[in-house]
# Entry
Amino acid sequence: MKIGSRSARIALAVAGLIPLAQGIFDFATGGLGPEPVEEITHRTGQWALRMLLLGLAVSPARRLLDAPGLAPHRRTFGLLAFLYASLHFITYLALDLDFRLGDLAEDIRERPFITVGFSALVLLSPLALTSTRSWIRRLGKRWRQLHRGVYLAVTLAAIHFVWSAKADWLEPGIYAAVAAALLGLRIPGALGRKRANYATLRRAENSEPKG
Ligand code: HEM
# Structure
């Protein structure tokens, strides 16, 4: 099986759905412990963040392993992240708030960690919706710009996790450090692109006829 082949992508998607299948099994067999709603929120939130981080790890891994075929897996991880984040949100809305939309609006306004989590989900939504080939073609250069929103979404998701922790900061701290490292790896590339754009602009200006 080739690393970026269709079967590899399907295998990854199936593997990414295992935590969901496990959750459904545990729910059906009473294996979610004494606080099932908390446990579902916990699992879906953590898997959403893990998938986001795995998606961010694809490009550095591609360069490190010289494996350009890994590229399509970013999309699979991104869609899995959106799936788990949506389930996490739905759990909160349905099981915590009993679909009281007024309470949701109040929480988004008044509980900062919910504001931040909700913003992360809102940012991820257009990325998930425009992840198809036809949208990539339709949006052209703007697609790349739009999809850079994932960096902000990961930052917000990591802050949301740290903020939601009541006592034990170690785990959210580790996730935040991994997110910071994966985002930090992008900085030299972004600076290089900026310098190259500036140089192109200067060349164009200098080659314009004077007078
Ligand atoms: C990309 C979007 C999001 C990600 C990645 C995410 C991730 C997480 C993570 C990792 C946790 C900690 C789970 C634990 O270990 O117990 C968490 C907790 C939580 N999240 Fe999110 N979240 C997101 C969006 C949201 C949204 C949209 C809401 C609701 C509007 C929300 C509500 C909550 C709640 C209520 C908790 C539990 C806090 C507690 O323990 O009291 N999250 N989230």
